[in-house]
């Protein structure tokens, strides 16, 4: 009897405890339901974008600085003026230029004439060819004289002429001797006798000279003459070699190396002369004019700024997590703090291939070209850029705030009978607010909890709180 009483008391205690426990749980549950934030799973469009900021810049920019000293004599442009490549923007006064630049004008004329002479080298080729032929003849003659077996001091023709001269001299001596025999007995002061005797002496001297000359010519060379002949051959060979090298150098026209050297000299002189003026390196708009006529300048003085405003570009830095979702040709939308209520289209024209680490984050440079721009957009403005990376229609969408990570898997908590219930899902494309649901036991219209209790997120049942 006592034992049954104890059992009954235990049952009563458990029943009372269960009643109050269940009541407390329902009360807490009702309080939780009252604090849940919820939203609906919907079906609609999703536009995934990457956002970034950047600065507008011109397609090309040039800051024009002087590289010499002088006084500005001309300033040919003003701010906002369009110029073409090569237009002279400003020029220094001739009288204020350094002496080296003034003298360069004379050097330029000389260098241009030298180049022209090289390019018109027909006369030089003819002269070189003639010099080569003459040198070849001289070399052949020198070698023949040195190597001939019948080497003599004179040619056969010269010897024949010497013999003829000797014969004439002998005849002349004989004739005057006969005449002298006829007058030798005349008085010593007889004019005829004196004239004939004088002519006889001259004839004898001519005979002696003719005899000596013939003996010399008929004789062989001595050591000195052989040495002179060797030297003559060496000189003729050197002259021929020089003439041949010159002919080989110019026979096919001017030497390309000479042409390059002449052109380089002209370019150097023109560069020196170019220091006296500033010219536009490309077509564009003058955006700054910092000097006036009469201003004194030194190397490094900035006078003009030129911008090619035909294209405006924006460079933005995109994190490595998003860079592989971008490609050349993707559309872009841009807004500017300085231009209210207007959005400008653009297109990606370059995606960086090398990242730059900044405070632990690797960014890649992406270049965007503005389209349909107007005069309101100017270089230096800050642009807020949105790059569309994906656009989907009629897809199941869940708020990003409702997605949780539970045991390595993404889940959402559906509110069923007032109780949050975890449902695994797989998401695809994402935007700032919503994500595409690729798979999972959810449907359009389901209510999802945006702030499930911590115990639910950890997978604990409600009665374990």
What is the topological layout?
Layout: H1 2-35, E1 38-40, E2 42-65, E3 70-75, E4 82-83, E5 88-92, H2 99-119, H3 122-147, H4 156-183, H5 191-218, H6 223-250, H7 256-274, E6 277-279, E7 284-289, E8 296-297, E9 302-319, H8 320-323, E10 331-336, E11 339-351, E12 356-358, E13 361-370, E14 382-399, E15 404-406, E16 409-416, E17 419-430, E18 434-440, E19 447-449, H9 454-457
Antiparallel strand pairs: 1-19, 2-9, 2-14, 3-5, 3-8, 4-7, 5-6, 7-9, 9-13, 10-11, 10-14, 11-13, 12-13, 14-18, 15-16, 16-17, 17-18
Kindly summarize this structure in a few lines:
The chain is of the alpha+beta class and 465 residues long. It is built from nine helices and 19 strands. Among the domains are: 38-46 and 394-449, conserved putative lor/sdh protein from methanococcus maripaludis s2 fold (Beta Barrel), CATH 2.40.420.20; 48-55 and 308-392, Elongation Factor Tu (Ef-tu), domain 3.
